[in-house]
């Protein structure tokens, strides 16, 4: 009976030793695997997630930087364009105030041309040309529109309609009452025209 008990105990101990050996072997195998992967340069799961987190953070920061840089470039372009537009139209009010003077010169030239005083005509023409050249140098241009042109509401203002003197002037400009002017691409005074119907 003692033999049976001793035998059973020895079997249990050997099984436990085998279990312990198996657990020890598993631990050793795991350690060996970790060492092998570390030696081979393969990161563990924790290191991989840390590295991935850092890569994601770097990608986010890079994206933020690129967006900020793009916004700044757009801001620089927009402000440069606004500044150029401001320079182009800065003297708009002064030029608009001088337009009636140009109209008066045109009417004066038409009346003086009817007289036979050549010296007076020449003197007024010189002053008129000097004023006109000065305004042109500041960016003022006359809107090119004349009788016989098709009417376009984007470039002219119709003040009245009259019966067309000829059939080919129907729906077209019959007369330009007041000249129009533009500063750069912006029309600062629309020409006033008479339409034929």
UniProtKB/TrEMBL annotation:
The keyword GTP-binding does not apply. Residues 1-20 are annotated as: Disordered. CDD domains: GrpE. GO terms for cellular component: cytoplasm. Keywords: Chaperone, Cytoplasm, Stress response. It comes from the Bacteria. The keyword Cell wall biogenesis/degradation does not apply. Transmembrane segments: none annotated. One of its GO terms (molecular function) is adenyl-nucleotide exchange factor activity. It is found in: Cytoplasm. Pfam families: GrpE. One of its GO terms (biological process) is protein folding. InterPro entries: GrpE, GrpE_CC, GrpE_head. HAMAP family: GrpE. Homodimer. Participates actively in the response to hyperosmotic and heat shock by preventing the aggregation of stress-denatured proteins, in association with DnaK and GrpE. It is the nucleotide exchange factor for DnaK and may function as a thermosensor. Unfolded proteins bind initially to DnaJ; upon interaction with the DnaJ-bound protein, DnaK hydrolyzes its bound ATP, resulting in the formation of a stable complex. GrpE releases ADP from DnaK; ATP binding to DnaK triggers the release of the substrate protein, thus completing the reaction cycle. Belongs to the GrpE family. This is Protein GrpE. The lineage of its organism: Bacteria, Pseudomonadati, Bacteroidota, Flavobacteriia, Flavobacteriales. The gene is grpE.
């Amino acid at each position: 009976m003692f033999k049976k008990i001793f035998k059973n105990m020895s079997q249990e101990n050997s099984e436990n030793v085998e279990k312990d050996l198996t657990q020890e072997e598993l631990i050793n195998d795991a350690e060996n695997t970790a060492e092998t992967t570390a030696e081979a340069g393969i990161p563990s799961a924790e290191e991989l997630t840390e590295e991935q987190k850092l890569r994601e953070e770097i990608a986010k920061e890079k994206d933020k930087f690129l967006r900020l840089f793009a916004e700044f470039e757009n801001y620089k372009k927009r402000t440069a364009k606004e500044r150029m537009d401001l320079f182009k139209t800065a003297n708009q009010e002064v030029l608009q105030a001088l337009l009636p003077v140009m109209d008066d010169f045109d009417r004066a030239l038409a009346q003086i041309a009817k007289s036979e005083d050549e010296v007076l005509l020449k003197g007024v023409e010189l002053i008129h040309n000097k004023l006109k050249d000065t305004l042109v140098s500041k960016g003022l241009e006359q809107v090119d529109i004349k009788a016989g042109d098709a009417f376009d509401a984007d470039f002219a203002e119709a003040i009245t309609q009259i019966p067309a003197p000829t059939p080919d002037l129907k729906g077209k400009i019959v007369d330009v009452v007041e000249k129009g002017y533009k500063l750069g691409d912006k029309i600062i005074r629309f020409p006033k025209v008479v339409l034929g119907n």
